[in-house]
Amino acid sequence: MPIKERALWIVLLILLILLVLGELYTLALRCRRGHPDWKYLRLWRYAHRGYHDKPIVPENSMAAFRRAVEHRFGAELDVHLLRDGRLAVIHDSSLRRTAGADVEVEDLTAEELKQYRLEGTDETVPLLEEVLALFEDQTPLIVELKPARGNHDELTAAAVALLDRYRVRYCMESFNPRCLMWLRRNRPEIARGQLSEQFLRRGGEGQLSKLNRFILGNLLMNFLTVPDFIAYRYQDRKCLSVRWCRRFYRVQEVNWTITDRDQMADAERDKSLVIFERFDPKGEQHV
Question: 12 vs 4, 15, 19, 20, 21, CA distance in Å?
Fold first, then answer.
């Protein structure tokens, strides 16, 4: 075979390999577009862990959620499964950071949880049912599922069952793809979102291997979860996988955590929803 002809075949083979890899990459990033709830959910900005104002108003407290409702903001909140099957609204499993106690919420009942106070205030860790009662017929919620010790299916099922009892508009998200897989199998009508960031750059997600951090940070489990939105750290939003999900699948992006008006304007120019904290999106002052 002449050298020029051989070179041409090599080039064609390389192009074919790149085409196949590109197709596999696109399939791995699969998202679902056009969920009907976006028409409503896009109308709001979302206060991160409630509209808190530390040290006066703690994060994920009833005071923070009342403040969000009063100011007509949606809210993002975090949900853990307690030992008795009820649901607590708190970010960390451990109460060390928020309540100064060396205990994990998964080891507590709802009654035991109420003895702890948040960040030196009189506020207790709320139950999800308390927050949902506050938000009935009010502003929407972004519910983040925080599984621990392999309870992803049990947590997701319990949260959905409770949400069914209240007139609250919401979507659900998680860093853990297994929560979204449960929703896809059992409650596909609920808008579900994959939370992520550049884990290789920032660490996080416990003791995950570098390979798993790469896979999760680049949304390569989407083909199993088929999310309706991507909730990505604002500072990492130029990630190729996020850009490709938006360009090819036209999926909704949500950015966290927005901390000033310039970031908010940048995200909203790109039609991303914002999860904000430490400033007033309607004014100039920090809170």
Answer: 12, 5, 10, 12, 14
Judge whether 91 counts as a catalytic residue: yes
- Are 223 and 28 spatial neighbours (Cβ–Cβ below 8 Å)? yes
Q: How far is CA 227 from CA 22, 162, 213, 250, in A?
A: 20, 22, 18, 12
Structure token digits, residue 77: 């909140």
pTM exceeds 0.90 for this model:
yes
Q: How far is C-alpha 28 from the geometric centre of its chain's CA atoms?
A: 19
> Which of 48, 52, 80, 152 is labelled catalytic?
48
pLDDT tens for each residue of 131-188: 999 999 999 999 999 999 999 999 999 999 999 999 999 999 999 999 999 999 999 9
| Beta pairing class for 46-48 and 87-89 | unpaired
Q: Are 180 and 189 in contact (CB under 8 A)?
A: no
Question: What CA–CA distance (Å, rounded) separates 30 from 192?
Answer: 13
Reply yes or no on whether 152 is catalytic. no
Where is average pLDDT lowest: 151-165, 196-210, 219-233, 247-261?
196-210
Six-digit token string for 19: 């085409």
Give the separation between CA 133 and CA 140, rounded to whole angstroms.
12
Side chain identity, residue 277: E
